[in-house]
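Quick log. Single chain, no ligands specified.
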Amino acid sequence: MHWRDIIRRPVVTEKSNFLADVNNQYTFVVHPRANKMQVKQAIELAWPNVRVAKIRIANMPAKRARRLRRITVRKAGWKKAVVTLQPGGRIDLFEGV
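-> predicted structure:
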């Protein structure tokens, strides 16, 4: 798999922003079949000046959502990777925004 297939998108929430500022941890949505070693290689290829210290991966469950009143749909599950960088590393997700 190519590294662009492994890293789908960053997760941008209040919690992920707090983790990035305080603990130097970044959260990404990754390919469902990706493992820790593939995620580590993909992060280090995407951002060459960054070294990964630790990775935690979690499968997020599917959820039900309502559309209009009675119609329920099922949102797909996804895989989340929380990447801890070595000290001094930084990923600029939104530069100049």
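The chain has a mean pLDDT of 91.
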